[in-house]
Amino acid sequence: MFTTIRIAYRALMKNKMRAALTVLGVVIGIAAVTTMVSLGQSASNLIQGQFESLGTNVIVVFPARGRRGGVRSGDLPTLTSGDATAIAEDCDSVLAASPLLFTSMQVIYGNSNWKPSEMFGVGPDYLLVRNWNVRLGGFFSEHDVNAADTVCVLGQTVARRLFQTANPIDETVRIQNIPFRVIGVLEAKGANIMGDDQDDIVLMPYTSVRQRLFGSEFQNVHAIMVSSRSVTTMQDAEMEIRNLLADRHRIAPGQPNDFRVQNTTEIAAMMGVITGTMTAMLASIAGISLLVGGVGIMNIMLVSVTERTKEIGIRMAVGARGRDILLQFLVESVLLSCVGGAIGFALGISGSMGITMAINAYSDGVEWPTAISYPAAIVAILFAAAVGIVFGFYPARRASRLDPIDALRYE
């Protein structure tokens, strides 16, 4: 086999330019496939990371949509803070739950003011649900919620906008002319997949938002965020939540629920299917160039058989069998393909890294991960070898079936 490979190498080096142009088709094909697969995997990892940043196994419960004259008229006030407490205490598959109240107001400190993109009234388990940590200070407790204390926790962007480099802990900010004491600053999360700054946020006890800012004594909340104990218990937690809320809201069997339950894992899985389908489609399109490269190998090998007919006759005359000639030309074909596959894979990885760097350079805060699949390297080389075998078999078989006498007479 070593001798056969050496002879194949010598034969290919006699026509270096032709061999290089033949390899070029395989190089382009493998590079295109590798680049598309790497970028698709990067997009999939990005989406998965964004959903993980949303929280740990998150389920979100919303009020049902109201209808007026057959047209949606907004959410109904059907969820309460008591529902969140009941979910956390009575659902075995639930790790934690937090009510949510949405608001949007100016935050003022001294001569500085800022309007965060997100302002939430939440419960003490909100950070556990969101898988978020506090960088400075602490978070409000159950006592703060029960007493509707005017305390707040800032995201990194809000703290930087209002306090610059100063320590905001125990400082007082005003929200709708009501003083709130800053007790903590959250860790940075960065931008989400839509480019929205997740650190541009202010968190307060939901009771403080309801009583101090809204001036309401009603127990209604805008949503409930729930974290299941694990990914495997997501469906169980969702079913338990549905049954519990239907019982608490006295919904008769067969009647529509007055709430909606959304499982973010299902959305992430759906997005994964979409990105996977797009990756497969792009890889298939890129694979056409690999097919063209294989046809190029077949064409060149047929030309090589014709040019080396007399050489084949001499080999057969001194004892070479048909399978020896077949192996010789197959090795040449596979050698071309494997060299092209290795170069193509290297160019594909470089191309995907370059495109990822370009995306990160021009994107607003979203960091695309660079995904390099080393199993893809093995698959690329094996696939290139398979292309060499498939498209090199016919020329090699044709060479092995030449008649020695006719081959020796060939001019």
Describe this structure in words.
The structure is a single chain. This protein is of the alpha+beta class. It has two domains: 2-52 and 269-409, no CATH class; 77-257, no CATH class. The chain is 56% helix and 18% strand. It contains 13 helices and 14 strands. The chain has helices at 2-13, 16-54, 81-90, 126-130, 142-147, 156-163, 206-213, 234-248, 264-307, 309-317, 322-362, 374-400, 404-409; strands at residues 58-63, 65-68, 71-75, 94-103, 107-109, 112-114, 118-122, 134-137, 151-154, 172-175, 178-186, 201-205, 223-228, 259-263. Strands 1, 4, 5, 6, 7, 8, 9, 10, 11, 12, 13 and 14 form a twelve-stranded mixed beta sheet that branches. Strands 2-3 form a two-stranded antiparallel ribbon. Helix 2 packs antiparallel against helix 9. It is elongated, with a radius of gyration of 33 Å. The mean pLDDT is 81.
What is the count of DSSP helices, taking H or I runs of 4+ residues? 13
Number of domain modules: 2
What is the ordering of alpha helices and beta strands? HHEEEHEEEEHEHEHEEEHEHEHHHHH
Helix percentage: 55-70%
Report the count of strand segments. 14
Structural class assignment: alpha+beta
